[in-house]
Amino acid sequence: MDIRLGNGFDVHRFGPGNHVTLCGVDVDHDQGLLGHSDADVGMHALTDAIYGALARGDIGQHFPPDQAQWKDASSDIFLQHAMELATGMGFSVNNADITLICEQPKIGPHAQAMRARLADIMGLDRDRISVKATTSEKLGFTGRGEGIAALATATLVAP
Ligand code: MG
Fold this sequence. Notes:
Layout: E1 2-15, E2 19-22, E3 25-28, E4 32-33, H1 41-54, H2 59-62, H3 76-88, E5 92-101, H4 111-122, E6 129-134, H5 140-143, E7 147-158
Parallel strand pairs: 5-6
Antiparallel strand pairs: 1-4, 1-7, 2-3, 5-7
Helix pairs in contact: 1-3
The chain binds magnesium ion.
């Protein structure tokens, strides 16, 4: 069995808005996240973790931010592309673990919906997807409420 581990990291800055999209779920907030696409920092980190496990670059290489067609794009497209690449290379995702780092909004009440949404996009059982959160104890840019960071790990297996 070929087992591959990938990691992903992403950051998006807060800006004007009334919600943030995290792991495919719209969460009410008094700000939005700035980005070329929907700025779904959690889904971007997860997508990069899958590309990383496959050693196939990163999200910016597959979907260049200077191309207008990805403006305001739903990040499902990126995650689906990574999944198709994995399938094409003979791999399936065994499990993924995502950590969102922010002071606000509170993630806990939405974590189950995020797991369900990601599992749906990826065609996996929800028990293989983890979404959890932490603060940075009011330190650094996440602590000052300037943006949200996300970490992700994905394990891919091929028989
Ligand atoms: Mg991003």
